[in-house]
Amino acid sequence: MEQIRPEHDYEAFLADGRFMIQRSRSSGAYVFYPRVAEPRTGVRDLEWVEASGDGTVYAVTVVRKRPPEKDYSVVLVDLAEGPRMMSRVDGIEPTAVKIGMSVKASVVTEDGKPLVIFTPKGGQA
Q1: Number of CB atoms found within 10 A of residue 22's CB
Q2: What is the DSSP string of the chain?
Q3: What digits encode the pLDDT tens for the residues 41-93?
Q4: Do residues 75 and 86 make contact, with C-beta atoms less than 8 angstroms apart?
Q5: How far apart are CA 34 and CA 52, in angstroms?
Q6: pLDDT tens, residue by residue, 10-46
Q7: pTM of the model
Q8: Bridge partners of 108?
Q9: N or C of the chain: less Cβ packing under 10 Å?
């Protein structure tokens, strides 16, 4: 029997530089965070699909750090596919990140671990 390990698969995709999310074959509903079953229906027909990377900031806060460390944003982003995820927005000052801002995802590596971060889309600041 094949072991289902969606979090492991997600991390492997990120390690390859790919931002993938799950979608139910029967309902078409997108799922994030990786799971073995679709939360609303319990169906286990989830497949991996490439995320568009497009999103909109739903909520934002700024984490203030003691110098010389830099402050950073913590955001909830509504992905174009529907799910919401937590991340941060880079490329602008953390205080410039606004609710409703259009953002684009990219996969970066920090401290040897790949993760999804967002940057403002279309020159917003």
Answers
A1: 25
A2: -PPP-HHHHHHHHHHTT--EEEEETTT--EE-S--SS-TTT----EEEEE---EEEEEEEEEE---TTSPPEEEEEEEETTS-EEEE-B-SS-GGG--TT-EEEEEEEEETTEEEEEEEESTT--
A3: 899 999 999 999 999 999 999 999 999 999 999 999 999 999 999 999 999 99
A4: yes
A5: 16
A6: 999 999 999 999 999 999 999 999 999 998 889 999 9
A7: 0.89
A8: 115
A9: N
